[in-house]
Design brief:
alpha/beta, 6-stranded mixed beta sheet, homodimer, 15 helices, 4-stranded parallel beta sheet
């Protein structure tokens, strides 16, 4: 199993730079005062398609060979990766086919359709997604761009941390959300490759704590029917992302649904930016663990800002 | 009646610069494509207290003499000006007394209290506000800092346009919302003082169209029981702001409630920033008048981002 290195992430950054936004790193004096630490928000909610996923998808599309480009790409995703691959493919003249659960938020379905991808709806189970995807691959020869169990995707996701550390090198912590582990794998590989003294922390909903269980038991434990407001973090780690996380992450901290919702509202109210529930997990880690972060500098990867405004949790 | 000039606004900017944020000017490729023009959003939702009002309030507080500083300031406001004056006063060691209507959004009441001002609640009518304020002035000798009918406040509000034109000098239009006319007076004085070829447009809810009526009839027409989702634009022009607007504004365009709400949602969804309904009027002007703006460059003053998330209009 080939694991990514900091060089792979730097190469990915060089490759995708012309396509992505170098998103801003924001801070809030009010939040710093409230939590008694210095917080630096790497705002991937301002990334194209409203999420970091555009980085990994773009890197994967740019690595296709000529024959692969002609047959197109396919993926299954609950939302942000779907839109990301749809746009990355369309910007590069490649056809994208997307398998989405029927239950995905309307705003995410619309985004995928707007980017011109072909959508196949399926039942909201991992099995149904994987079956639909396999069928499309067999029929069309399309290349699978898995949302996180993919070397090129992981390298792309790591470029957000690369830009964060280029703007703010003197951090004590970097915190990113953990779902399938693609962002966490890229982020931790990047951070440890640049400065091994920076602590890397994964933020996970208590109600979807497969990564916490896997990390602490040393064995890959899949998620069983997770139920969390952080709809981007329902997926389980893969062998690849688990291995990378074991190697590079210092700890995984779980957070309550209540903290996720209150931290999302806090960022909306005080910073006037839209972040999605999955992104609020990183601030929830700060909120639930004041002792760890007091007086320290933490970089927070804000993963995205795609929210269905008609179904808010507050 | 002394009217402000571009020199007064430049002087105000020099004075308040150490206290305010030089807010970013953002743009969105998606919105530019959708409306077929180039839009530059001057984001005063990222200003301290979440609104441009901090500029005018700070300028007014910094102009107090020593005797006035000791007696403090007083104002009546439905929200943003209240928080702005409370913070500006507290940052400068001056006591603030604020008269607020009982019906003001919770988030705005809390903000004022957090900044340490003394709040007096009153009925939600202009008469009740003015009476309470007069009483406080008589009892304490506090200086009234009116939300808009005030030379120093108007000069402060004009500094947002000054920063906008410093970032983007080659605009065809500048659009700002019109309520009591403080922002519009400062903005139009600034823009015409710098480049008289730039068209200055006021954006007003059709349901609170006193400025439109006054501007087009040449006579000051007060608002009677206006009812609009743009809760920052309920107030009527004063003699002072009307005179300045008559001198400097090219036209006032009214917008429907439906446009205000859909444009607010559009900015949240596409730009991932929180803007309040009053701010959405400027984009609603673009939406309702495609013929005027096609192919042009427009600077939009986004007045604020203070929203009660439990009472959203969508």
């Amino acid at each position: 199993m080939k694991l990514p290195t900091i060089s792979d992430i730097m190469a990915a950054h060089g490759r995708i730079k012309p396509y992505i936004h170098n998103t801003p790193v924001l801070s809030s004096q009010q939040l710093n005062k409230m939590f008694e630490c210095e917080l630096y928000f790497k705002c991937e909610n301002f990334q194209r398609v409203g999420a970091f996923k555009f980085r990994g998808a773009t890197n994967a599309v740019l690595q296709l060979g000529e024959a692969e480009r002609k047959k197109g790409v396919v993926t299954h995703s609950s939302g942000n990766h779907a839109a990301a691959l749809a746009l990355a493919a369309s910007m590069n003249g490649v056809k994208a086919r997307i398998v989405m659960p029927e239950t995905a938020p309307v705003v995410k379905k619309n985004a995928v359709a707007d980017y011109g991808a072909e959508i196949t709806f399926c039942k909201p189970t991992l099995q149904a997604r994987e079956e639909s995807t396999r069928k499309i691959m067999e029929e069309t020869g399309a290349t699978l761009v898995h949302p996180y169990d993919n070397f090129n995707v992981i390298c792309g996701q790591g470029t957000a941390a690369l830009e964060l550390l280029s703007d703010k090198p003197d951090l004590d912590f970097v915190i990113a959300p953990v779902g399938g582990g693609g962002l966490m794998s890229g982020t931790s590989t990047c951070v440890k490759g640049i400065d091994s003294k920076i602590q890397v922390i994964g933020a996970e909903p208590l109600n979807a704590n497969d990564a916490w269980k896997s990390f602490n038991s040393g064995k890959l434990v899949p998620s069983v029917n997770p139920l969390t407001v952080a709809d981007g973090l329902l997926t389980s780690l893969s062998e690849l992302t688990f291995r990378i996380i074991q190697n590079n992450v210092d700890q995984i901290l779980t957070v309550s649904e209540e903290s996720i919702i209150s931290c999302m509202l806090l960022v909306w109210e005080r910073m006037k930016i839209i972040i999605e529930p999955s992104s609020a997990t990183v601030l929830a880690v700060i909120k639930e663990n004041p002792g760890i972060f007091r007086g320290k500098k933490a970089g927070l990867i804000i993963s995205g800002g795609n929210v269905d405004f008609r179904k808010l949790p507050f």
